[in-house]
Amino acid sequence: MEKWKKEYEEIRVPEELRDKIEFSVHRAQREKKKRKRNIYKTIGSMAAVLAVVLILPNTSREAAAAMQQIPVLGNFFKVITVREYQVEEDHYIADVQVPEVVSEAPEGSPDEVAQEAQQSADAINFDIQKATDELIQQFQEEMESSEEGYRSLDIESTVLTDNDRWFSLELVMFEASGSGYERHRHYTIDKTTGKQPTLADFYGDDYVSEISEEVKTQMRAQMAADENIVYWVDDPDMGDENFQQIAENQDFYVNTDGHVVICFNEYEVAPGYMGCVEFVLEEVVG
């Protein structure tokens, strides 16, 4: 029996098979996340997504909006899909939907607010286009190379908040090449000003220190309450890799209750199995 056990433990999985298994696992995890996210979308949002049945190249905002007939969100902003990129091969899978924010200030809005809202939408769209173009280019280059392997790319967006005061959009970018990596980017607009707020607008010049301490407090409380939750804070084995403070341009959004939510991507402050993590700050803004 001991001999058989030893022989079994020494069996080595071929590298290509291992990569394929890891790739399949991460694809399955990604699909599960996507299904879970879709459950919480409104009926109107689902109808808008279902209306997208065409493969859209880079096209005009007006043409994309006309084809999709997506309803206005909150009578101020709407989100349209201006590009779709899809691949389904043995080793390569891509499902990319590139969003664009359209500013349509309600009638009677001050000209200054309408102008600021358009500038905010333009800045968001530029950032989204740049990020998605880079990922698509990398994916295409790997497809064209002679190197064997497995690669997946998924990009989608979700409107997280759209009330009388706030509009928040989430861009989700998932890559798998053997192992998987998911990143989120968030964009928030204050409808009363048309501007994208900063953390300094909410918490003053000392926002980095103030928010960092609150995040650490929440990390410690969560770990004390659940042994399965792990953050890299106060860990002697992590040393300088422990979380110290947020970045000056830390990713965040404002949720439907008016709270600022601090966001970290996979592996930034916790092991990969924790995924992308968020911390809701107590104070209501605006």
SS content category:
alpha+beta
Tell me the number of strands. Answer: 8
C-alpha-based Rg, rounded: 22 Å
SSE order, as H and E?
A: HHHHEEHEEEHHEEE
Tell me the span between the first and last alpha carbons. Answer: 69 Å
- What is the helical fraction, as a range of percent? 25-40%
Write down the overall geometry: flat
- CATH top level of the largest domain is Alpha Beta
Mean pLDDT: 82
Molecular structure report:
- By secondary structure, this protein is α+β, with helices and mostly antiparallel strands.
- It folds into two domains: 14-196, Fervidobacterium nodosum Rt17-B1 like (Heat Shock Protein 90, 2-Layer Sandwich); 198-286, Actin, Chain A, domain 4, CATH 3.90.640.
- The chain contains seven helices and eight strands.
- It has helices at residues 2-9, 15-39, 43-50, 61-68, 111-144, 199-203, 207-225, and strands spanning 77-88, 92-103, 151-162, 166-177, 179-190, 252-254, 259-264, 277-284.
- The chain has a five-stranded mixed beta sheet. The protein has a three-stranded antiparallel beta sheet with strand order 6-7-8, with helices on one face.
- The N and C termini lie far apart (69 Å).
